[in-house]
Amino acid sequence: MKLAPSILASDFARLGDELRAIESADWAHVDVMDGQFVPNISFGLPILAAARAVSSLFMDVHLMIDRPERYLRDFADAGADGLTVHVESTAHVHRAVQQIRELGKKAGVTLNPGTPLEALRPVLADVDLVLIMSVNPGFGGQKFIPHSLERIHTVRRWLDEIGSAAELQVDGGVSATNARAVVAAGASNLVAGSAVFGRDGAQAGLERLREALK
Ligand code: DX5
Ligand code: ZN
Asked: What is the pTM of this model?
């Protein structure tokens, strides 16, 4: 079970401290938004590079940008350990996955809540991570879409059927209230933004999630 706090919910003016506060987590989830693929702009290469420079966490970069293949090398050079692309963001998702692997990084694929899961199947055997979005991407702090549990369950079955050890990550509205159910549905990796950084500091937030998963 891996926890991947999303730094989108952190205090950017104190990014170094925030990263230290999640040092006991497994990964840092880095949400890149371009104002095109999603209706919001977050941050890009320089912030990833700054985070990389002060943290040894696995940098899990979620690219919510149009035609991500244009920037894969740049994000790899800026310190990404894993790169996740949306099936809706490119006509060439298979090529993008290959490119990520050629860059020596972990390749992830994801899709929006309204996209049929079938879109994953052609690349399922070629990825290190499948991300099931449990909110519509673009903003932190949204409510978990309950139907996501079924989608997680289906993808868990597909991965097991092909003997894949890929991470099954879930992103959006994950909290201490639903984390157990998400894991029971088959997730191996939980992204959490507001549930970690939201109230009384990241360490307390992480602790609440760990408690909930016991
Ligand atoms: C949403 C992002 C998420 C977001 C999660 O577009 O992909 O990673 O930061 O935030 P919470 O956990 O607050 O829903
Ligand atoms: Zn994300």
From this structure: 0.98
Atom of ligand 1 nearest to the CA of 8: 9
d(CA 92, CA 177): 37
Cα–Cα distance, 59 to 192 (Å, whole number): 14
62 annotated binding-site participant: yes
Domain ranges within the chain, ordered by starting residue: 2-213
Please state which architecture CATH assigns to domain 2-213. Answer: Alpha-Beta Barrel (3.20)
Name the 3-class secondary structure at 108.
strand
Q: Which tens digits make up the pLDDT trace of 10-36?
A: 999 999 999 999 999 999 999 999 999
Ligand 1: which atom is nearest the Cα of residue 173?
A: 14
Contacts of 197 (CB under 8 A, 6+ apart): 5, 7, 9, 10, 11, 18, 205
Does the annotation place 82 within a ligand binding site? no
ipTM: 0.99
Distance from the alpha carbon of residue 170 to the mean position of ligand 1, in angstroms = 10
Closest residue by Cα to atom 9, ligand 1, is: 140
Contacts of 149 (CB under 8 A, 6+ apart): 181, 182, 185
